[in-house]
Amino acid sequence: MTDSPENNPLVGMKEIAGHIGKTIRKAYYLCETGQIPAFKLADQWHLRPSTYATFIAHLETQTLRRKDQPEKASENSCLAPPRRGRPPKAR
Known about the structure:
- This protein is mainly α.
- The protein has a domain at 10-66.
- The protein is built from 3 helices and 3 strands, in the order E-H-H-E-E-H.
- The protein has helices spanning 13-20, 24-32, 49-68, and strands at 10-11, 39-41, 44-47.
- The protein has a 3-stranded antiparallel β-sheet.
- The longest helix is centred in the middle third of the chain and has 20 residues, at 49-68.
- The radius of gyration is 21 Å and the shape is flat.
- The termini are far apart.
- The mean pLDDT is 81.
């Protein structure tokens, strides 16, 4: 493995938060819930910038694919919105 800056993992929540542009609390939440590709080693979170860049690129391609596909009309698109509250009693 080479020692390029992209391969050196960011260690600690402060570095990770700075890299992804979020607060430390939000970065911790994203790591804990698995929403970003970080890993915990010896009670510290690590994030490899190259892996994060690949992850973001993958999300972008998924989003672009969804925008290219036309939306399917739902069966209930012409009907009134569903009622809130209790459902009507069965007779």
